[in-house]
Amino acid sequence: MSSRTYESRARTHPTAIGRTLLSLMAAKKTNLCVSVDITDAATILSLLDAVGPSICVAKTHIDIIPFSNSPSSIAEFTAALSALAEKHNFLIFEDRKFADIGSTVKAQYGGGVYNIAKWAHITNAHSVPGPGIVAGLKEVAEELGVTRALLMLGEMSSKGNLGGGEYLAKTLEMARGDTEFVMGFIAQCAVDTREGEDWIVMTPGVDLGRKGDGLGQQYNTPDRVVREKGCDVIIVGRGIIGAEDKVAKAEEYRKAGWEAYEKRVAE
Ligand code: 5BU
Fold first, then answer.
1. The whole model's pTM is what?
2. How much is the ipTM here?
3. Is-contact 224 189, C-beta < 8 A?
4. What are the two backbone dihedrals, phi and then psi, of residue 142, each rounded to the nearest 5 degrees?
């Protein structure tokens, strides 16, 4: 696990998005990614405007939004989302979990109704299909002329998932094939790092109180995942969006995540 500061890693991270992310994390003192798993587009936008100062990343599932209310078009929503990212200096992560061959993910990432590559700085992919998935996604970013980064799914948070261990080790090998596009992993712990490597680990399944959700989700505290396990970014959904005072709750998670990080780099 890294005892280096986000600031120092921001200067040397091999991916451009990684450098941007680590540097804004240091500037805003936040390692909190809020997962806006809300189906009303306008509610997502107003929530992000309110919690924007507390977060480094906004994670979306664009395919859960019916776009039946205003904003009623995907393009209008993604433009407003991008404007908020600019305003509050956070990045957008579409949690799409691509899982097909290179040629198919190219079409899914670059087109369809969502045009994910046009507005999401970060997306993620399963390693099951092999390295062609990384190459396909990267080609989309290159063809569009945009700076994008990928997180590989090495281990999920849910009970009984097949990731971690050997699977994570093989995913890490795959990531090593493209260190300019793959910025890190979705995992529950820091990954084995060779001299000169730096992987950003983003971790879902974080909650300050609950242990699970009855559908397989498993939660750990910010202290456990950041200080003890060496992860870099905490991903929090219902812990924040389910709270009465979402802004205060986001600040509570930001503080908990930041304190855990400060302890880790001091240890
Ligand atoms: P929660 O409300 O904090 O449990 O939401 C977690 C979010 O992270 C939700 O959007 C999931 O789809 C997402 N997630 C996850 O929970 N576990 C994983 O391993 C991955 C994503 Br990858």
1. 0.98
2. 0.99
3. no
4. -65, -45
